[in-house]
C-alpha cells in the first residue's frame, strides 16, 4: 500500500512540475553537455574565450569551501585559512584531531564583488574545518563545520543564533550529524542539511531546529538506486517548484526530491524522489536562479575535465559553460546572473558572467 501511495504522489508531482528537469544519459559522460540551451541565457564572453576571471580578493584566502550572497549583493566567503584537510585531520571513527585547535584567523569574509575588497571578516578562533555556507532571505548566514559535526546559524551581525549537532561528536541518530556539507533555507524558515560525508542523508528542520523529516541512505549496490547517496555535497532549493535538489557527488549525479513546502490539500511530504540527472561527473556544487540550475563538476581521474554547466529546469536542456576550473568546491549565483565559484587550490574565487 505504501508503495502505491508513493507512486501516486510522484505522479501528482510530475503533473504539478511539468517538463521538470533532465535526463542526461551515459553517452554524455565526458562530453560537453550541449542540449541547445537558449542562446539568450548566456553572456557574450570576452575574457580570452573563457568568460572567467579571478576576483582580486584583498586579503589572503585559504581553501574556499562555501559562498553566499546577501541582500546588499555582497559576497560572503567561508574559507579554511591555513587549515588543510589531510590524513591527520580525522581518525577512522570520523573524530577530529582536536590537538590541531581552532583556526586562528578569520574564516568568513564579506567581499565587495566589484573590487574584491574585504569589507568585513569574522570567525576567528571559532571554526575547525569550514565547509558549507548559505545566506538566507533575512541575511542570516548558515555554515557547516565538518570537524565540529555541527550546523550553525549566524545573524547578519555574525552572532550565533542556533547550533545543531553535538560539538566534535559524529553520529547517525536524529540529534547528530557526521561531517555535514551544506544547508538550504526556505522563506518559511524551514531548512535542509546535507549530512554528508558519513551518513549519506538529507535532514529537514523547522524554523526552530526541530527535525521534521530525514531521507536518503548510502549506496546498497554497485549501481545506486534512487534516493541513495554517496556524499550529498551541495543543495539547491527551488521553492516555487517545491523541490530540493542534491549534488550526489561520488555517484556523479543530481537527484531532486519533493521539498514538502506546500500546505493544504495538495501538500506533498518531503523526500519523495522526483527526477535526476546522471553520468555528469562528480558534482561538487549546485545553485538555482530563475529555474536555471548551475553546477560545477570536478575531475574524476579518467581524464574527464571539470566543467560548469547550466540546466534549464523548464525545458530540460543543458549546456556546458566553462571548462577547466580545477578543485571547485562551492558556487553562488547573484540576481544579475553572475556566477561565483570557490576553489580549494588555487585558493581563489572565479567569476563568470551570465545574462539576467
UniProtKB/TrEMBL annotation:
Its cofactor is Zn(2+). It catalyses: a [peptide]-C-terminal (2S)-2-hydroxyglycine = a [peptide]-C-terminal amide + glyoxylate. Gene3D superfamilies: TolB, C-terminal domain (2.120.10.30). Disulfide bonds join 178-198, 245-256. InterPro entries: 6-blade_b-propeller_TolB-like (IPR011042), NHL_repeat (IPR001258), PHM/PAL (IPR000720). Ca(2+) binds at residues 67, 133. Zn(2+) binds at residues 131, 233, 329. CDD domains: NHL_PAL_like. A protein binds at residues 80, 197, 249. The keyword Signal applies. Residues 1-27 form the signal peptide. NHL repeats lie at residues 116-157, 175-208, 224-260. Pfam families: NHL. Binds one Zn(2+) ion per subunit. GO terms for molecular function: metal ion binding; peptidylamidoglycolate lyase activity. GO terms for cellular component: extracellular region; membrane. Its EC number is 4.3.2.5. Its main location: secreted. Keywords: Calcium, Disulfide bond, Glycoprotein, Lyase, Metal-binding, Repeat, Secreted, Signal, Zinc. It is found in: Secreted. One of its GO terms (biological process) is peptide metabolic process. This is peptidylamidoglycolate lyase. It comes from Parascaris univalens (Nematode worm).
